Amino acid sequence: QVRLVESGGGLVRTGDSLRLSCAASGRSFQYNTMSWFRQASGKEREFVAGITWNSGSTQYVDSVRGRFTISRDNAQNAVYLTMDSLKPEDTAVYYCAADSSVLRSKVQELLAEYDYWGQGTQITVSS
């Protein structure tokens, strides 16, 4: 059974930092782009950050660029999201996802490009 399991969420204050982890099991995703999405209450799920299979390219939504950093460890079949200078508008459920295609040179931002999803982890940033 293929699983993506996120961890590291919680309740923090404005300006704090968090590091999310996503552990994959059931198959290797070393050749797949891995990304983080988020969904705030009452809003659509949106792309946050992505990293290609060889870490050769990363992509961020404008609202987090310079504050969030995505990384991966293919040996551990894991992807991470380091979040600094958190803001209340970062409050959402954060999801890890794996691109359905392999060996892409560019991160895809559309939800439809991702076949595997985690169950999500809640991040709440208080003001």
What would you say this structure looks like, in words?
Strands 2, 4, 5, 6, 9, 10 and 11 form a seven-stranded mixed beta sheet that branches. A four-stranded antiparallel beta sheet has the order 1-3-8-7, with no helix packed on it. With about 130 residues, the chain is an all-beta fold. It has strands at about 5, 10-15, 20-25, 30-40, 45-50, 60, 70-75, 80-85, 90-100, 115, 120-125. The termini are far apart. The protein is globular and about 40 Å long.
Give me some keywords for this one:
7-stranded mixed sheet, 53% strand, 4-stranded antiparallel sheet, 127 residues
Provide a concise account of the structure shown.
The chain is an all-beta fold and 127 residues long. The protein has strands spanning 3-7, 10-13, 18-25, 32-39, 46-51, 58-60, 68-73, 78-83, 92-102, 114-117, 121-126.
